Amino acid sequence: NENVFSKYNILTVGEVGGGASPEEALLYSGYSRKEIDMVFTFDHCWANGAYGSVNKKDEELKTDLVDLKRTFAKWQNGIMNKGWNPLYWLNHDHPRLMSQYGNIKYHQESGKMLANVLHFMWGTPFIYQGEEIGMTNVFYNDFNDFKDVGDQNYINEVKKNNLDINQAFAYLRRTSRDNARTPLQWSNEEHGGFSKAIPWQKEVGNQQEINIHDQQLNEYSILNYYKKCIQLRRNSLYSDVIIYGNFELLFENDTNLFIYKRVLENTTILSINNFFDKEVFLDIDFKVEEVLINNYDDYNKNIKRILRPYEAMVIKI
């Protein structure tokens, strides 16, 4: 920092990996340290149990929402006022967010809900390419399509020990790092509009349904929901409370709802998120002054207390 960073008007970001504590992270990124500006942690990246799930079926995996919420809250409260916090879901070394914590059957609803959870916490949001349109994991049926060295090592083990091929494919499709390294789906054209040539990393193959071009034209797309979240953070009456407000996790032990409060002086907002594909009763007493954003178009602020699958909103109370 003394020799390089401090001489430029730049932002520096590092990582402390998984298992590090906020206190350890502050040794690198605390305001008083004058080293780097913020650091990533990986603690929240495998809360659905996919990591190491070689012998499990997809339907056996379920996100431990209580653990996920506590992890986010630990970093929110552990870093606040001592350093700055990066907000992100997953990166180039993890599966796609939609396939990890979302639900392709509720593509728009779950994709928007996950954006809603992240963008109204305290810190700087990072969006991994393809996340903003709800890109999914791969559907590869050929071991040669997997390029990652870790995958190839696992495939060699499968072949050497005559392990179950179908089980191996299922595991790779939900955990491979290649999931996040597929070409960005710009359009519904061949190779997702990424290239006229065959890309080195094979595309997912669902660009007809999921692509940037179509979502740009759809007012209610996941992409445009992300834009609304960013606009609320950057340039709205609520920018200050979103950027600087205190964070408080509500209903910590609820297994379906991810709800938190942001408070700055006389302004209070709630981010309310149903994390799963079933209706949930919202047992909370509040008066809604304004709905800042919501992912269902027919929200009624006066009577709504049943949250539909993946329903999400931010409200001023």
Features:
two-stranded parallel sheet, globular, alpha+beta, 28% helix, 5-stranded antiparallel β-sheet, 317 residues, 9 helices
Please outline the helices and strands:
Layout: E1 13-17, H1 22-29, E2 38-41, H2 65-79, E3 86-87, H3 97-100, H4 107-119, E4 124-125, H5 149-160, H6 165-175, H7 212-217, H8 222-234, H9 239-244, E5 246-250, E6 257-264, E7 267-274, E8 280-281, E9 290-294, E10 306-307, E11 312-316
Parallel strand pairs: 1-2, 3-4
Antiparallel strand pairs: 5-6, 6-7, 7-11, 8-10, 9-11
How would you describe this structure to a colleague?
The termini are far apart. The chain has helices spanning 22-29, 65-79, 97-100, 107-119, 149-160, 165-175, 212-217, 222-234, 239-244; strands at 13-17, 38-41, 86-87, 124-125, 246-250, 257-264, 267-274, 280-281, 290-294, 306-307, 312-316. Strands 5-6-7-11-9 form a five-stranded antiparallel sheet. Strands 1-2 form a two-stranded parallel sheet. It has a two-stranded parallel ribbon with strand order 3-4. 34% of the residues are buried. The protein is 28% helix and 15% strand. A hairpin with a 2-residue loop joins strand 6 and strand 7. By secondary structure, it is an alpha+beta fold. It contains nine helices and eleven strands. Helix 4 (107-119) runs parallel beside helix 8.
Radius of gyration from the alpha-carbon trace, in angstroms = 21 Å
General shape:
globular
Helix content bin: 25-40%
Tell me how many strands there are. Answer: 11
**Ranges with pLDDT <50 over ≥5 residues?**
none
Task: Give the termini separation.
Answer: 43 Å
**Largest β sheet strand count, sense and barrel closure:** 5 strands, antiparallel
Count of runs of 4 or more consecutive helical residues:
9
* Beta fraction: 15-25%
